[in-house]
Design a protein that fits this description.
This protein has 150 residues and is mostly helical. It is built from six helices and two strands; from the N terminus they run ααααβαβα. It has helices at residues 10-19, 24-32, 45-57, 62-84, 100-110, 123-149; strands at 91-92, 115-116.
Length: 150
């Protein structure tokens, strides 16, 4: 997620994958074929796409540009993560956790392995369901206590 614009989110990667005419499921692997050295600095999806288009027009390989786009997302994500300080393991959830390039770049920057569930895009839904179940259990417990005290 990003605190300014979609240019730091999975939706941004999805949009850019479409621009590269590459399925989102393959975009991370495509970027892993790239070589480092380029950068995308724009915080806005429209401007970042313009930067990518400009790099293509200058003859840079699409895989290198795709890697730069992934690096941009990871850079923004890690800057926010560092605000809360990470001590110990890191669990990565959500649809972007299926992107091998993002995982690799985060692990390189954090200098440690991150944990990814087998179905990372379901983790938020499962957490919400567990939270709702806990609230329902507490509500039932309170009602039982009220009945006992009545």
């Amino acid at each position: 997620m990003n605190d300014r614009c979609a240019a730091g989110t999975g939706k941004f990667l999805e949009f850019m994958a479409a621009s590269f005419q590459t399925p989102i499921e393959r975009f991370g692997d495509y970027a892993l074929e790239g070589k480092p050295g380029l950068s995308i600095n724009s915080m806005c999806t429209v401007f970042a796409e313009s930067e990518a288009t400009s790099l293509m027009a200058r003859g840079h390989r699409p895989q290198d540009i795709a890697l730069a786009l992934h690096q941009s997302v990871v850079k923004r994500s890690l800057s926010m993560l560092k605000r809360v300080s990470v001590n110990g393991g890191l669990v990565f959830s959500g649809g972007v956790a299926r992107n091998r390039c993002v995982i690799k770049l985060i692990e390189q920057e954090m200098k440690s392995q991150i944990l990814v569930a087998s179905e990372p895009d379901m983790v938020g839904a499962l957490g919400s369901a567990l939270y709702a179940a806990q609230l329902e259990h507490k509500k039932k417990s309170v009602n039982v206590i009220r009945e006992v005290n009545s």
